[in-house]
Write a structure and sequence with these properties.
Layout: E1 3-8, H1 18-34, E2 39-43, H2 54-65, H3 68-75, E3 95-96, E4 105-114, E5 119-123, E6 130-133, E7 145-153, E8 156-161, E9 170-173, H4 176-180, E10 187-197, H5 200-211, E11 221-224, H6 232-236, E12 263-266, H7 278-289
Parallel strand pairs: 1-2, 1-11, 2-9, 10-11, 10-12
Antiparallel strand pairs: 3-4, 4-5, 4-7, 5-6, 7-8
Length: 292
Amino acid sequence: MTKTVLVPSSLVRETRDKREATRKLGYVARAATVFRIDRLVVYPDRDGQTRWGDGFVRTVLAYAATPPYLRKEVWGQRDELEYVGVMPPLLAVTQTGSGSDDPGSLRQGIVTEVGSDGRVRVNCGLQHPISLPVPSSLTVDQGERVTIRIASEEPLRARIIPDESPPGVHVECATMDEALNRTDSGVRIAASRYGEELSTESLTTLQQRLTGATPGDEPSFTVAFGAPERGLPKILDIDPDGVELRDTPSADDSQPDRSRFDLWLNTVPQQGSETIRTEEALFATLACLNLE
């Protein structure tokens, strides 16, 4: 099951300076971490973005999603990261193995040295980089990120996991269509004040749909958000009063962009503020979608 969040490159368009923009992005990264989002995608909104565009947004979000013990080695000194000290700490919970044959915790590591004996040195947040054998099915280069399973730290027992992505939120840039058309996109949701208002009754139906046929499964979804003063209807250039609420668009649908999504959802019905910030919408929406 995969949880994906889409945010526009115009996400920080209303911010006054780089410091404020960085803080805002920190709360977006924190929402993704709190609700265990797998993939955070920045999609282009060229008409809405100001001086802080997709490069800045993606870099700050990716920095936030990088474990603290790897940030200096991965990112070094960059202009986009001038004010990262104002971001709230993510304090991500360590992922652990769930089966008796796969104990220990998962963490990201970065290869600092490649030896000639089939071993590499990896910085994975321990006191010193550790030397590990490279699985025969894997080829790694210096500077590459790998997934490490730490079975114990004293004595040290660790290994590289070749077929598993590093734990945590993966940040990338992609078009909305690319993100929505992935085979693991799950239920595709447009978060919008013009969508169907979520109620206690519809929440039960929504959760059943997100988890599929198997009770107890984690929700699987891709949810897209808009930007300040540029909700999804404006970004997609469609009439907000006619967004498609039904699962199947009509045959004479004159606004095909509506059919990109399985449903349009308003997760803050009867909102008491004229506008809801994107980072606030993330917390409100993901809290509902994350229920099992």
